[in-house]
Amino acid sequence: MGVRKSLNHPRDLQEIKARIHRLSEESEPKWGKMNVAQMLRHCDRILAVGFGKIVLPKINIIIKSIGIITKIEMRTFNNGIPPNMPTFKQVNIKENCNFEKSRQELLESIDEFTERLENNNLLAEHALFGKMTKEDWGFMEYKHLDHHLKQFGV
After folding, report:
1. DSSP code for 121
2. Residue 141 covered by a domain
């Protein structure tokens, strides 16, 4: 099953930041429609959900149930996120983005996220995944960043 990596762990946090620094404007996706700058902005917006800066819409109970089961499966089996998963329109990036600006903003959001994580100052509930603990947030955000960094080969 492997080790559960998390933004709660300094070594895993540094690994994610190092991988972000290895990206370049020329990094090509292995799947999906976003370019590298759009992916960085998308990851930044996903982190902002945990701060409550981006509010996801209420979803129906069937979809939410699937989200909660997915979270449990990811925690239990240490699963990754499959390619080409749908996302909320609030975090779907279609506009052109500046690569360096998007990377810098993502790194700043990661720092804010980890500070909020340490202070237990993240939302207690996620629109899709339900109740969220500090451990859930650190794990799920690591998995999301890892998924998109693999998408771009780092």
Report:
1. -
2. yes
Q: What is the pLDDT of residues 123-141, one digit of tens each?
A: 999 999 999 999 999 999 9
Structural domain boundaries enclosing 51: 10-14+33-151
DSSP at 6 = -
First-residue to last-residue Cα distance in the chain:
22
Is residue 60 situated within a structural domain?
A: yes
**Residue 19, in any domain of the structure:** no
Residues 6+ apart with CB under 8 A from 48: 54, 109
Q: Which helix (H) or strand (E) holds 131?
A: strand 130-131
Dihedral (C-alpha) 22, 28, 33, 36: value to the nearest 10 degrees? 30
For the whole model, what pTM was predicted? Answer: 0.94
Number of structural domains found in the chain: 1
Residue with tokens 């800066």: 53
Enumerate the H helices of the chain as residue ranges: 10-22, 36-51, 61-77, 99-118, 134-151
Assess contact for 123 and 132: CB atoms under 8 A.
yes
